Amino acid sequence: MSMRALNELGSNAELLGALALWVVILLRLPSARRSRQQKMLLIAVVGIAGSITVYLDPVTAALNQTFTFAQSCGLFMNTWGVLSSALILDFVLAAMSRRRPWLVYGPMVVTIAALIVLNYTIAPHAGCVTSEVVPWYSPFWWLLVAAHLIGTVPCAVLCVRYGRRAHDDRPLRTGLLLLAAGFTSSSLFWCVVLGFLLARPAWLGALFPLNIAVTAWLMTAGVCLPLALAARHTARDMLALWRLHPLWRDLTEAVPHVTLDKPLGRFRAVLGGPRAIHLRLYRQVIEVRDVLLVLQDYVTPEATEAARHHVAAGNLPDEQIEPAITACWLRVALQAEKSTATPQPNQIAPGSPTHDGLRSETEFLLAVRRARTLPTVRSFTYLPEASRPATPDRDDRDDRNAPAPHTR
Length: 408
Known about the structure:
By secondary structure, this protein is an all-alpha fold. Helices cover about 70% and strands about 0% of the residues.
């Protein structure tokens, strides 16, 4: 691949990465406002996003046409870069509970002022500082590179440190390590700048846009991970809500007084925001559980034991046994409720998941819904003692079959 093609590839990836990063930042704003740490981290990411954005060709052209200050060979970009480094360093100190705004933003103002002064003094004939007219040992370059590295390197180390501590929270650990990789890539960019100033290889300069693009996409992945997990949880709640609806509908029609609000249709139930869908699923699970507690009184302990023996004879997998038992006695309870039988307190509790929580409750109830279609459950019937046909005892049968005594 030629250097021109490599530069063009990096520029396109850089533009798309910057757009994706800003979209993710806007999507994270509502949740970040509720957490100070997330807010500070997002501000640091905004600093990186701003540094990337001002180096995009369309943005640079727009700035040059709008601001006189921006025409000074990238002074606007360099100023914003120093500001972004200050935002990142402020986040690091806040995370370490050592935040000192004056210690961060005071040197930032001095650094920006020094860059502006150096820009107009060390290259008066050229009009601005460029790599062609100002050598690598100029304090302008070292001050600019140091300002960026002082912000990005500690932030990368901090993200790695906290990411390694998050052993039990895998998504948090992955997100922090992705952000650490993004800050490391940003630090690497300024090391590449130093290498280019020292050796001036053309191929190294062609890597600038690609390096910035890698930084943008790594930061996008790190910031986007909570959004992806939230979208996954919402999709799982929607699917559970959709699948659980037939069981919920059958049970609440039998015991309608357990519903708090007007029942929604199956399609309308899965429409809405993530919080609304989660609350509907939670309420639906609670209502199904309430119906099970009500219908439990319509079956006797003998019926529950009969269901257990019937399921045991069906050779079902272990994970289907408890849901199938629940489906069996639920079948009997619904029939008894429709026949207006008188409920009696039943001390045998219905089946339940092995772990508490909405997810395990939902999975168990979905297993009950699936178990209702099993042939083993469909073939289960139970008649109470009072409804069974009377059968004579063995002694009575023997007496009736015995020959009549001889009489004289």
